[in-house]
């Protein structure tokens, strides 16, 4: 059974840090581009960070550049999102996504993990 399981969310004060993890099961992430998205209440889901299958390229939303870092450990079938200097605007449900075009088009989503930044 293909599954992406996010963890590491929670309540943190402004200026704090969290590290999200996304563990894949039922497939290997080696050939997949891995991404983190988030969706705040009343807003559309937005791309936060992305890392290519070979880890050669990362991309970030302007709002998180310099604060968030995406990484992957293919041996552990896991992708991470280190979030520093969190602010209230980062409050959202964070989702992990795996997608690829070759050798077969596939896309998988996790169930999401809640991140709440509040004093």
Estimate the helix proportion, in percent: under 10%
The class by helix and strand makeup works out as: mainly beta
The number of helical segments is: 0
Distance between the termini: 39 Å
SSE layout:
Blueprint: E1 3-7, E2 10-12, E3 18-25, E4 33-39, E5 46-51, E6 58-60, E7 68-73, E8 78-83, E9 92-100, E10 106-109, E11 113-117
Parallel strand pairs: 2-11
Antiparallel strand pairs: 1-3, 3-8, 4-5, 4-9, 5-6, 7-8, 9-10, 9-11
Q: Characteristics of this structure?
A:
four-stranded antiparallel sheet; 52% strand; mainly beta
Short description:
It is built from no helices and eleven strands. It is an all-beta fold and 119 residues long.
Tell me what you see in this structure.
- The protein has strands spanning 3-7, 10-12, 18-25, 33-39, 46-51, 58-60, 68-73, 78-83, 92-100, 106-109, 113-117.
- With 119 residues, the protein is mostly beta strands.
- Strands 2, 4, 5, 6, 9, 10 and 11 form a seven-stranded mixed beta sheet that branches. A four-stranded antiparallel beta sheet has the order 1-3-8-7, with no helix packed on it.
- A hairpin with a 5-residue loop joins strand 9 and strand 10.
- The chain is globular.
- It starts with a strand and ends with a strand.
- The mean pLDDT is 96.
